[in-house]
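USER: If only I could read backbone structure tokens as easily as an amino acid sequence. It would mean a lot if you studied the pair and described how this chain folds. Here is the record:
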Amino acid sequence: MPLIPRDAPAVAPSVMGLPPFAVRPEVGADELADRVILSVLARWLTRDVFGDHERSPGGRRCDDGAMTEVRIAHTAELDTATREAARALLDEVFEDMTDHDWEHALGGVHALVWEEAELIGHASVIQRRLLHGGRALRTGYVEGVGVRADRRKRGHGAAMMEALERVVRGAYDLGALGTSDEAAKFYAARGWRLWRGPTSALTPVGIARTAAEDGCIHVLPLAVPLDLSGELTCDWRDGDLW
């Protein structure tokens, strides 16, 4: 049963303080209801992510006065322009960004930081399977975390991670990511733990050690017991395995 009458107006009313938004005349009541629900959820997520930060509807104001907004969307919801902007941003942030690296960041939930119409931050979490203790753990694996160079040290990385950590805690057995020594302190301060044991990958020809990745993997422990000094094996993918 539709949540909005069939004769709903072409402009949806304000919901929980959200401004009205235009709707194409051909949009049906069911789709209109979905849009209202998504708008309410977006406001709820923004509230929880930003806490007591000063913000306008859907955003927050940084110390320098710039108004920014973190938007959460699945890959399927990103239009071509947004995907291209995200890829261009990561190419700028990471000098060795490859097509495989970009592919690894797709297929899950993205946290995008917008400053007006400019994309200045990106991070995503995708599903992988990590083998540990005889179990194939459903893992929220964080990829493509980057903020434009001239917008760093303003809390954008923390805001994106807080949004993605909510996804990890609500949908996965644990979180995991690979990081550099420079960024390790950032993740450690958020509760991510260094994996001290040996790492491997489940390849088409069997399990193979990934010794070069030892000491670079961090996990976000949740309900599943973990032995951080034990073995951890990732599933197979093209490009960087971790």
